[in-house]
Amino acid sequence: MVLLVKLGQPVCSLSKIPPPGACRGFWGWLNAVFNKVDYERIQAVGPDRAASEWLLRCGALVRYQGYQKWQQDYSGLPTGPLGKYKIEAIDATESCIMYRGFDYLDGLEHVTEIKLQKCIYIQDECLQRLSETKSLQKSLLQLKIISCGNVTDKGIIALHKLMNLEYLYLSDLPGIRQKETTAHVLQQALPNLRLELDLE
After folding, report:
1. Strand bridging mode 87-91 / 142-146
2. Do 151 and 124 touch, CB atoms closer than 8 A?
3. How do the pLDDT tens digits run along the chain, 200 residues long?
4. 3-state percent breakdown (helix, strand, coil) of the chain, nearest 5
């Protein structure tokens, strides 16, 4: 009988409801850990492999140059000689990538497409960092930004440094308040850009 009482006590204490935001704080901390840049790993395995590991760890997908299939399984990352698999496209839909991890993008020389959709940690500073990445300024051709609530006109205008960008799709971005002005600034800076807006 005493044993049953002792076993029952911890169960009662577990039934307490955590304070609001306690779980959110834990996930935010964990996502920050996933985004911590490991510079030694980049040196050891190269920028494409290290960036693949970061992106998949955060819930994004990658597609390699010469392949049609999207890589989504971290434990199924392809092996082989260093430098064999070059990231060509990134789909960060509902991923936890954040500014803290954007150093992983340095050195990616073959990325032509990026999709940022429902990324709660993407904000103006991320887009500015993206546009300042020298390798992406040369290679990035298509960018889609959809339902990223922390993106404002400032972040979109910062994309003007992506000189080879051919297509930009913007949708469901409530932080954009001056879409005509923002579109005009981008079109002036990037005359060959095809800009598609689906904004309220």
Report:
1. unpaired
2. yes
3. 444 444 444 444 445 555 544 445 544 545 666 788 999 999 999 999 999 999 999 999 999 999 999 999 989 998 888 889 999 999 999 999 999 999 999 999 999 999 999 999 999 999 999 999 999 999 999 999 999 999 999 999 999 999 999 999 999 999 999 999 999 999 999 999 999 999 87
4. 45, 15, 40
Sign of CA dihedral 79, 77, 98, 125: positive
Considering the entire predicted model, what is its pTM?
0.85
Residue position matching structure tokens 């803290």: 100
Within 8 A by CB and 6+ apart from 182, the residues are 153, 156, 157, 176
Tokens read off for 21: 């935001």
